[in-house]
Amino acid sequence: MNSRMDKKVNLYTDGSSLGNPGPGGYGIILEWTGKGYQKEFSAGYSRTTNNRMELLAVIIGLEVLKKAPMEVTVFSDSKYVVDAVEKSWVFNWEKKGFKGKKNVDLWKRFLFSFRKHNVRFIWIKGHNHHPQNERCDALAVQAAKSNDLMLDIGFQAIELIQKGN
Description:
This protein has helices spanning 3-6, 50-63, 79-86, 89-95, 104-114, 131-144, 153-164; strands at residues 8-17, 22-32, 37-48, 71-76, 118-123. The chain is an alpha/beta fold. It has a five-stranded mixed β-sheet with strand order 3-2-1-4-5.
């Protein structure tokens, strides 16, 4: 087997929030190029936002990769995430200490994982019959509706700070 093929993966992601904020979840499909191997991941949170779940899906997808560096193509319907990276906004935010930006905890976590791999992003239109995107959406919504919801500690900390002001 070609070792270059072993290091290529397609990462399909989607996030969902039932209310914004509200219960949310993410769905991920990882497909290894040339191997015919695919793995799905999802999780739900009791109170979060859609943008946090879109970004968290990419983060988790990168974090579960056991080998580094990998050639990763991320397919996402989130303009927030795709544009932040592809237009280099997040790197400028980082240089400015993320001043005034939302989801700083997740962007810092993203950058840590992003820098371990060679990552490119492709934006795909959501709810447009793209099979993997539709599956990720279903996983995200199912996770958001589950009875086993986790706490989005970063989001809850932000809410507590805002209530104190």
